[in-house]
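Per your request, structure below.
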């Protein structure tokens, strides 16, 4: 019997409700389904078996990587697609996954990023690039008890990383209560990670973010600063490294320390000139402080491709605000035609925005008066 090409690997606990939606979204594409149960008290195991999964039990040890690696160990496919129970690949994205699967046969050492969309409380969404398919080769494994990563092991065996436009929805942050609950759980695991390995800068960055999520900004800044002060190339070269600067700047901004926020963002842009989110945040600060001449060039430099990141960013909101701020600034500068173009770009993102419609009404009044 030939080896399966694509294995779906999952770790679950008490997911009898979410599991059918997740597995059903990819069941036609994958060749086998491996589910590792970490101690469910509901009917998760029965549901998984009914959906065609091979189910294995693994005692939960406060370590996501241990459970993930158990799922890899049980998989026989040449490639692994990993998902959480609250993930789903939309129906209109499945054809892309089929096409990618066909390409896997000729590419034994490529790993693939998907576009991960996190719908958030209040209607916003955050987007990041997330590595979801990788080759099932010797030495490939997850590391990190929380916010586990497979990328370091792939780098060690020189896997090529490929970005795709396949979208996967992660539905675990749909309410503020869910966000807070997960942050509290993560905090305890991260603190133990930091205690075991004081030089784990990735965990430090995640600790800062977790404390910030819980509203403990002083503690958050302590960890962000530790990461920002590290200048070792093995750390500064990580894709997540700029996120510490972004988060620190946001905390300073929200605390009213705009001078410090601007300084942090300028340092980040100096070292990472293609970071679109840093340019947006800096332009936004200049706009709200009345310096529209400084705000405009930063906003023009914000493009969607510069917002693609391995860290979640509210891309739709950022692009809307970019065009809205440009519309306001250009109108004040007397550039009415360019202002209209910016407002129209807003409406393409949010067609029902009353704020933009009222701004256009005032702009058209200015245009009539200028004739």
């Amino acid at each position: 019997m030939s080896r399966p090409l694509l294995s779906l690997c999952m770790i679950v606990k008490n997911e009898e409700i979410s599991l059918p939606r997740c597995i059903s979204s990819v069941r036609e594409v994958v060749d086998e389904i491996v589910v590792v149960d970490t101690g469910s008290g509901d009917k998760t195991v029965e549901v998984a078996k009914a959906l065609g999964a091979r189910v294995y039990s693994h005692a939960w040890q406060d370590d996501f990587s241990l459970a993930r690696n158990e799922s890899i160990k049980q998989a026989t496919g040449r490639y692994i697609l990993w998902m959480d129970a609250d993930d789903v690949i939309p129906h209109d994205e499945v054809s892309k996954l089929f096409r990618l699967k066909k390409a896997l046969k000729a590419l034994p050492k490529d790993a693939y990023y998907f576009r991960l969309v996190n719908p958030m409380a209040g209607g916003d969404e955050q987007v990041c690039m997330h590595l979801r398919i990788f080759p099932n080769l010797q030495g490939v494994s997850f590391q990190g008890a929380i916010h586990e990563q497979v990328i370091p092991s792939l780098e060690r065996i020189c896997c090529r990383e490929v970005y795709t436009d396949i979208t996967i929805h992660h539905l675990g942050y749909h309410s503020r209560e869910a966000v807070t609950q997960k942050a509290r759980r993560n905090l305890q695991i991260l603190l133990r990670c930091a205690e075991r390995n004081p030089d784990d800068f990735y965990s430090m960055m995640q600790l800062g973010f977790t404390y910030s999520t819980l509203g403990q900004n002083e503690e958050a800044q302590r960890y962000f600063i530790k990461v920002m002060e590290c200048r070792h190339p093995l750390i500064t070269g990580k894709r997540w490294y700029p996120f510490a600067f972004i988060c620190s700047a946001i905390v300073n901004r929200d605390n009213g320390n705009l001078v410090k926020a601007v300084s942090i963002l300028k340092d980040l842009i100096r070292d990472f000139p293609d970071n679109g989110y840093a340019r947006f945040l800096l332009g936004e600060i200049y706009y709200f402080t009345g310096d529209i001449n400084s705000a405009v060039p930063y906003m023009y430099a914000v493009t969607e491709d510069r917002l693609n990141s391995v860290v979640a960013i509210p891309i739709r909101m950022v692009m809307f605000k970019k065009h809205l701020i440009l519309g306001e600034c250009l109108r004040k500068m007397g550039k009415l035609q360019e202002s209209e173009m910016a407002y129209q770009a807003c409406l393409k993102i949010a067609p029902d925005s009353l704020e933009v419609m009222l701004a256009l009404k005032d702009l058209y009044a200015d245009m009539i008066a200028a004739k």
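Residues 68 and 239 are 22 Å apart (CA to CA).

Regards,
D.
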